[in-house]
Every structure is written in structure tokens, then in C-alpha cells.
Amino acid sequence: MFVYFSLWAFFCFSFSFFYNLSTEVRAHEHNKEDVYELSESREVNVYSYRQPQLIEPIINAFTEKTGIKVRTIFASKGLIERVAAEGRNSPADLLLTVDISRLMKGMQMGVSQKVRSPVLEANIPKQFRNGDGYWFALSLRARVIYASRMRVPQNTITYSELSNPEWKGRVCTRSGQHSYSLGLISSVIAHEGVDKTRQWLRAVRGNLARKPSGNDRNQIKSIFSGECDIALGNTYYMGLMEIAKKDTGQRKWAKSVKILFPDANGRGTHVNVSGMFMVKDAPHPKSALKLMEFLSSEEAQRIYSGVNFEYPVNQNINPSPRVRNWGELKADKLPLDHISKHHRTASELVDEVGFDEGPY
Ligand SMILES: [Fe+2]
Q1: How far is the centre of ligand 1, averaged over its atoms, from the C-alpha of 235 (Å)?
Q2: Domains in the chain, please, with CATH?
Q3: 297 alpha carbon – ligand 1 mean position (Å)
Q4: What pLDDT, on a 0 to 100 scale, did the predictor assign at position 41?
Q5: Residue 145: enclosing H or E segment and its boundaries?
Q6: pTM value?
Q7: 42 CA to middle of ligand 1, Å?
């Protein structure tokens, strides 16, 4: 009897030993998977055309929340070309940039990859992301008209009106070949066709106060100094000038100017974007996707609008109070993919009409 009992006890012990062992093995295998996933998710490398003072607060918030380390390289030029040259050896996971033309360039050069994410699709309206997931916008930047508070009584305007004779010698702008100008001209082509855009551009050239030059802030300065009465520019420069250091004079210049949202009662104001894409051979695609989703989240979007006075792409977030003060933005509804197809034609038209040579 004792022998039977011993055999039974030995059998039970052995079974439980081997069962536990095999469970441990399974658990270990599972842990191995976790470890793999963790090591993939520990870091992400970002190439950014956007400046550190805007990106760093957002990235710090991401690292604090997820523990994922972010390495960032900042440069104002050549990052897409660098990723292309590095090819499969590129350490870059994610590229951050301003301007639709650069987002399109990444796609056309085969540097970006398709990303499908229900989070990104929920946070970013369709017109502000590529249909196949090759790029996603993160913030909107309206191309508005700065107008002298003293010399321009009207509070509404259209882009088309810029060609009217009443503005003769009163319009300032930066170069027609700058990507901000080309974005706007592309949208005019998308709405009005090439011939009408050519006529319009010729007439606007005739209304210029001087040769196109300087950046958007310089146009505001030119209105302040009386050189012109209206100018084209992006909204956020007003915000940046309103909070500029007192001794730079920028606050004074900004005070002399109001913002008119062109075509607010019609097709809507032209907006360009800042945005992102995942690099084709991203070494850390999972962590890169986490960062992309975070950048579109309400938390990050609030930082975008608060720090740089841009419009959040996530429609659950309001623009900052300073931005709301300028009036309501009704953005052109045409998808940016559609507008940016005309970039090359826009650039050719600028040359053809001699826009950058200034008034006739
Ligand atoms: Fe800018």
C-alpha cells in the first residue's frame, strides 16, 4: 500500500514539476517577446526641420509619459536628401517639417512609408493627411493678409481683390518662389485654373509697392513704415511679434497691423501645414508610431498652438486665446494633396510673369 502511495506521490510531484517547468518556459518565451518589444520601443530618432524651442517641450512630454527616448537632429535644410542618401542605413524614424511641398517631396522621393493608424485618422481630418498615410499634418498655418489699421478701413478681403486697381503700389510680399507663396498660388490654380491665375499674378505684380523681398515679418515692418498698406503673410508671425522682446520694435510693428482672413465668406482662407512622415526604413517603427500618435493628441496639440500660435490640426483643441483674438479661421476645404499638385506650375507662372522683378 505504502509503495502504491509513494508511486502516486512521485507521479504527482513529477507532473507538477514538469507542468510548472513548461509553464515557466512559456512565460519565459512570452517575456522574451515583451523584452523584444520593449527594446524596439525604447527609442526613436527624429530628423526635424522644425526648431528646437517648439519641438523640445512636446518631446519631453512624450518621454515623460512613455519612457521612450527621443534623439533629434535639427536642420533647416537638406534633411530629406540626407535620409535619401543614407538609404537603408538611415537611423531616422520620423521626419518633422513645415510646408506641404516638403511632405510631398518625401513621398515622391520614396523616403516615406505608408502608416495606418486609427488614432491618427481620428485626430487628423482627411483633407490634412495623405490618403495612403504617406504624410500627416500636425498644425495649420493660414496665409492671410496683414493690413494697416490706419490706412485700410475694410475688414474683409479676397485673394482675387489683390489684383484690383485700388491696391496699385500698396501691396508687399516675400518672393513668389518661396514655398509659402507657391502654396497659395497653387491653391489659386486649383480653384481658378492656370489662365486665370496667370492674369491674376500679372495684375498683383502690377500692384506691388516694391520688389518681393524679406520674410513675412519684414512685410509687417513695411506696413508700419508706410511702404505698403497690405501684405501677404502667415498668421503665427503676428503672435511671435506681439510677444517679441520690447527693444526689437516688433511689438510696435505688429500693433500697426490687423489680420484679414481672405475669402472667409467664400471658398475659405488658404492654409499650409507643418507635418510628419515615417521614414521608409525606420529602425523603430513601433515607437515612431507612438510618437506620431502623441504628436496628434490633444496634449501635444495644445503645446503647438500655445508655443507657436499655429492652428491645431486636431479639431478638439481650440487655437490659443491670442490666435482667437485675430478672428475666426475658415480654412479652404480643398485637400492639400490636390493643391500641391500645382506647385511646379505655380513656380513656372511666377517666373513667366516676372513676379519677383517687382512692379512694372
Ligand atoms: Fe514660417
Answers
A1: 9
A2: 44-140+272-320 (3.40.190.10), 142-270+333-357 (3.40.190.10)
A3: 23
A4: 62
A5: strand 136-148
A6: 0.85
A7: 32
